[in-house]
Specification:
The complex is a heterodimer. By secondary structure, chain A is mostly helical. Chain A contains 5 helices and no strands. The longest helix of chain A is centred in the N-terminal third of the chain and has 28 residues. By secondary structure, chain B is an alpha/beta fold. The chains are: A mainly alpha, B alpha/beta.
């Protein structure tokens, strides 16, 4: 992942209509779910099923976009397309990088 | 209160959309992380808006919409599908498959509120039209019932007009009409047909209006020529009613022209035989003759019930359709009850 994740709370809040409660709730949920999301990516990877990988990566893409991580979401989209096209080479590395990104975002969110 | 069904396999999205739906006001969100379970819920519940994610395991949003639309009465309920920006092909497919609009991830509250409100307005309009249509249907039904009642009253009065010129009574038309219904029931005719003959039978002698008094009211036996004129009442009744816009009057026309036909072909005016005689005519023939026999008239005493039944029995296949006689006798309890209900001394006032 090229860029480090920088929390843009203003942009997230703007999308949520300035609702701090919803924001706080979403951060909580993200932090609760991050391990599950990483595990789901692992599971899909182990099946070797490109479609399952694509689906999990798609979920992660949405999650990262929700927290205005444009760089992370773009990378997820690239991997999603790769899975869609059945290009297995390098797919595992991409998925691992995404897991790292999920944890990095979690770290920033919990710190913020 | 609008019921908003939200289907997304991601908990965080479900929670976010739920929070946004609650912000809309007057909405009650119903959440599912599994589209198959949501579909099951939809079999017994009707949401006002469906918000469904595209990419889900087991069943994607497109397949969900298609299955949802296939459920009875779910064809017009607004559906918003959530897609990513880069899924243009999915959007086209969804539009063709029955989605009404889209939400783009990440969800933006302003966009969400505007689109969701539009969809709910659409739904409110649909419900208003449906309620209005239902209201109009109820009104039309009530008015139709009113018109039918007036039609029946009119028919009763027309029939009475004929009866007033005749020694027979208002109670006679009531009894013979109800006997006709008993026979129709015994013949397994539909409820509508049973009702129709009940309403139409009173008009059987309406053509007597056109018979001169010196014949109609003659105390003694009619001459051959006079009887020929008298027989004309069947055709006059038919002419009077035949082209009416009312189904009851048209049935009355059929009864009027055929109730003096006899099963063996010896009746009038056409000398029709067996099943060539309209069924209503065959039914009314039994009902009318039985009541005439068992009623007292200025010129004759009432026959006993046994004698009248014997007359019907003897007339099977000659004067009467055997099946109609059988149906009449099978409804004997009802016949007795009708005789009690409409007695000559208690002519219903009109």
């Amino acid at each position: 992942m090229a860029d480090a994740f920088v929390l843009d709370k203003k942009s997230i809040l703007e999308r949520l209509g300035g609702d701090e409660d919803i924001y706080a709730m979403m951060v909580d949920m993200y932090l609760q779910d991050v391990d599950n999301n990483c595990a789901a990516l692992d599971g899909a990877l182990q099946t070797g099923d490109a479609d399952a990988i694509r689906r999990e990566v798609h979920t992660v893409k949405g999650l990262l976009a929700t927290f205005s991580d444009e760089s992370g979401a773009a990378e997820a989209q690239r991997i999603e397309h790769q899975a869609r096209d059945g290009e297995m080479a390098g797919l595992a590395a991409g998925v691992v990088a995404l897991q790292e990104r999920l944890r990095e975002v979690a770290k920033v969110l919990s710190g913020g | 209160m609008h019921t908003v069904l939200i289907i997304d396999d991601s908990d965080i999205n479900l929670t976010l959309i739920k929070a946004l739906v609650l912000k809309l006001g007057e909405c009650s969100p119903v959440l599912f992380d599994n589209p198959l379970a949501a579909l099951e819920w939809c079999r017994g519940n009707v949401p006002d808006l469906v918000i469904v994610d595209y990419m889900m395991p087991d069943m994607d949003g497109l397949r969900f919409i298609s299955a949802f639309r296939a459920l009875h009465g779910r064809n017009e309920i607004p559906v918003l599908m959530i897609t990513a920006n880069d899924q243009k092909d999915v959007r086209y497919e969804a539009l063709l498959g029955g989605a009404n609009d889209f939400l783009t991830k990440p969800i933006d509250r302003i966009e969400f509120s505007a689109r969701a409100r539009n969809m709910l307005s659409l739904r409110t309009g649909q419900k208003f039209l449906a309620d209005r249509a239902e209201h109009l249907a109820v009104m039309v039904e009530a008015r139709t019932a009113e018109i039918r009642e007036r039609e029946k009253e009119l028919i009763f009065r027309i029939s009475r007009a004929a009866e007033f010129r005749d020694p027979e009574t208002g109670a006679h038309i009531q009894r013979m009409a109800h006997y006709s219904q008993v026979i129709a029931q015994g013949l397994d005719l539909s409820l509508e047909q049973q009702k129709l003959i009940l309403d139409a039978a009173p008009m059987h002698d309406v053509g007597k209006i056109g018979i001169p008094d010196y014949i109609l009211l003659k105390p003694g036996k009619l001459t051959h020529e006079e009887f020929e004129v008298m027989k004309g009442h069947a055709r006059i009744g038919y002419e009077l009613l035949k082209e009416s816009g009312s189904e009851i009057m048209r049935a009355g026309a059929e009864v009027a022209i055929s109730h003096h036909e006899k099963y063996d072909g010896s009746g009038y005016p056409h000398g029709l035989k067996g099943s060539h005689i309209p069924l209503f005519g065959r039914i009314v023939a039994v009902a009318d003759v039985f009541d005439a026999l068992t009623s007292e008239r200025p010129y004759k005493r009432a026959w006993s019930l046994d004698d009248a039944c014997q007359f019907l029995e003897d007339g099977r296949g000659k004067h009467f359709d055997p099946l109609c006689v059988e149906a009449f006798l099978a409804g004997w309890e009802q016949v007795l009850e009708i005789r009690q209900r409409f007695r000559d001394e208690d002519i219903p006032s009109i």
